[in-house]
Every structure is written in structure tokens, then in C-alpha cells.
Amino acid sequence: MAGGRARVAASILDSDLANLGHAVRRVEKAGADRIHLDVMDGHFVPNITFGARMVKALRPRTELPFDVHLMISEPSRYVEEFIAAGSDSITFHVEIDEPIEPTLRRIREAGRAAGLALKPKTPVRALARYRELIDIVLVMTVEPGFGGQSFMRDAARKIVGAHDLLSYLPLGGEVHVDGGINRETAEYVGGLGVDILVVGSALFHKGHDMGREIRLVRALADEGYAFELNHGKPPVPRDEWRSIASLPLHVGTKLRTVIEDGGIPVILLRADGRMNPDGVRDYELMVPRQVETLALERYATERAAAYEEADAWRSSYTAPAS
Fold this sequence. Notes:
- This protein has eleven helices and eleven strands.
- It folds into two domains: about 220 residues, Alpha-Beta Barrel (TIM Barrel), CATH 3.20.20.70; about 80 residues.
- The longest helix has 20 residues.
- Helix 2 packs parallel to helix 3 and helix 3 packs parallel to helix 4.
């Protein structure tokens, strides 16, 4: 797993479409973080690719997350099929001519991440009414429908507004960029704060080392983020977790529930620290490092109360009669 902030979603649109299973295994071996699957209907965009059956057929070939981008006119008709096929996130376009909210709700009710995509000329404000129903904003920096197009620098600037739109989420909201992403453009979009870079044609140039290309894109995006948004410091790794409390299991479980209700994930891990009177050591409450400060500040009162409860329990503990 990559150690920095930026993540690469490998688009297999420019691979050998007669052997997509091989393409999926190849990008996984090269170190991609997820698979981006472009679904086109020949109506919303002037091209046709594949549907839910292909997604289902590819699902057993990898454990990487499937990020499905529906460039279709009627996502409501097919969203259940893509959910059943094993999609981990489903993004469709805000420019469609059918109700959007019901489809977003169906995706979220199925426990998948829901996203909306923006064509290059569509402003971020088009998403405002759906703000609390989306986990992903996909900023298109080419016109959707074909791979290998030139990067639109002006369109990429919407990454900043997309992040502002999702800023109410303490963790979980992602801004993706798709179109013309390669080693030449990665640093620029990283400096705008993009989370996920969809890379397609740059990975499938004959003679190129795909793994090196993925590493370069991630590193350059992180460098752009560091110098444009983080005062020259390397970004916080996405997969680093920090302990914010060490508590008996029953007390820690209650505090975890409170914190997770606020949108911050918590992992309870058995610690090597204090031994309790019941013979079980404290558990560590671990949160992602990028929200460590937020969690400590937001839940300071609840954390202090949990420590008081733990001390009172230890003082009053009576071992069961043998």
C-alpha cells in the first residue's frame, strides 16, 4: 500500500479490451490503489464500452476496490446491477436528464460510496443541492467518452471548489480527477488538493514501466500538495493511524460509538499498556492520523469522561467468585 496522500485509480479503458482480466491483474501488480471502470452507453457519450456483466466478471480477479464511472443517460435503470456486480463506489454525471437524488440514495443504502461527476464546463455549484448525499466529486479534465485526450488545466481548478463542497465531512469525502493525468500533470492537480488521480493511457504505453509510472504520479502529486498547500512539508499518509485513548474494552467501545457517530472511523486494538483488574489490558482507540487533532479537540469532554469512568471501574472492580 502506498505511504503518501495521493492515490492512483488505474483506468483500464486504454488496455486490451479483449483481455481485461489480464489488465486488472497487471495494474494491481504494478501497485495501483483501485480500478477505475468507465461505463459508456453510446448516448450520454459517443462511445460504448461495457456494462455490469463485465464488472461482475472482473470482480473475482482482484481485491482492489472497483470505482465505477457511469457515463450513461439513465443510471437509475442500471444502478442495482452495478451494485450487485461488486462496485465499491459508483459515480454518475450531474448533467443527466433524470432525478439524481433517488439514485444517490440507493447507492448509499447499499453501503457503497456515491459520487457525481462534472464535465469540464459544468461548475461545482451544480452539485450544491446534493452535497450531503455524495462521497465523491469527479472532476473531468477532458470531455468524457474517449481516452487519451489532452488535459484541460482550467477545468482542473474546480478541484478546489469540490474540496470546499465536501469540507463538512471530517473524513471520507474524496475529490477525483480524470482526464490527461500523467507525470506532467500530476504535480499540478496535487497542488490543488486532489485525492484520487485516475490514470489511464499513461499506464499503457508500450515499453513503459507501469509500476514506475504509478509511483511517479503519486510522488509528484504529493510534492505538489506539499509545496502548494502544506508549507513544504510532506502530506500526512492516508493509511497512518494514531492512538487517541487507552481504555478498558467496555469503556473504549462506548467512546468509539460516539466518535464514529461523528463520521470518524475508529479501530480498537488490544494494547501493551495498562493491565486491568480483570486481567485484560487496555485497548487503544486508533483514528486516521489526518483527523487525530480534530478527534482530540472535538471529543475532549467525552474522552475525559471515559477516563474517569475507567478509573471508577478499576477502583470498584470485584473479581467473580470462583
